[in-house]
């Protein structure tokens, strides 16, 4: 019976045993692979620990009753300054909830209902814009960027809500702290 090698790395190649240099190169490669795998595992474990103990995973979600549906019309903006949110009826007949807090800077927008810069982009060509007093960026009432930025304002999920008296109201799912510290330019 033939002599069967016990280790696959020590197996002869075409009947010729490996030289000590070849065996050392295989051992170095195996050690590198194991070290790389250990590093990847360590990074993954560190990410899990960071997420569990150091990151703030809490996302504040709150349902806001924005009143009866019949108070909304296409092109009409209904501001809710205490929530930093603006609701507008868009051309499709839906209601859009525009975030009044600028992502990143935490500045709060100002609603300027008579400003003509938004007329071309607003539903039914109504005047009015949202302005960031910190950067002078301007958005249409629907949250579309007009000038000073290319990013639209964030929007929230809007849906129906039946009030206790049976009337249909507008439900807005608000995210995050709705009362950031006021930032001025």
Describe the structure.
With 185 residues, the protein is α+β, with helices and mostly antiparallel strands. It has 2 domains: 8-53; 61-175, Rieske Iron-sulfur Protein (3-layer Sandwich). The protein is 18% helix and 27% strand. The strands form 2 sheets. It has a 6-stranded antiparallel beta sheet, with no helix packed on it. It has a 4-stranded antiparallel beta sheet with strand order 5-6-7-8, with no helix packed on it. The chain is elongated.
Mean pLDDT: 86
Order of helices and strands: HEEEEEEEEEE
Count of individual helical segments: 1
> In terms of per-residue confidence, which ranges show pLDDT below 50 for 5 or more consecutive residues?
none
Q: How are the strands of the biggest sheet laid out side by side? A: 1-10-9-4-3-2
> Radius of gyration from the CA trace?
31 Å
CATH architecture of the largest domain: 3-layer Sandwich
What is the CATH T-level topology of the largest domain?
Rieske Iron-sulfur Protein
Q: Roughly what fraction of the amino acids lie in strands? A: 25-35%
Q: How would you sum up the major sheet?
A: 6 strands, antiparallel
* Assigned CATH class of the largest domain: Mainly Beta
Question: Quick one: CATH superfamily of the largest domain?
Answer: Rieske [2Fe-2S] iron-sulphur domain
The structural domain count equals 2
- What is the number of strand segments? 10
Based on secondary structure, the structural category is alpha+beta
End-to-end span in angstroms?
88 Å
- Global geometry: elongated
Oligomer: single chain
- The share of residues in helices is 10-25%
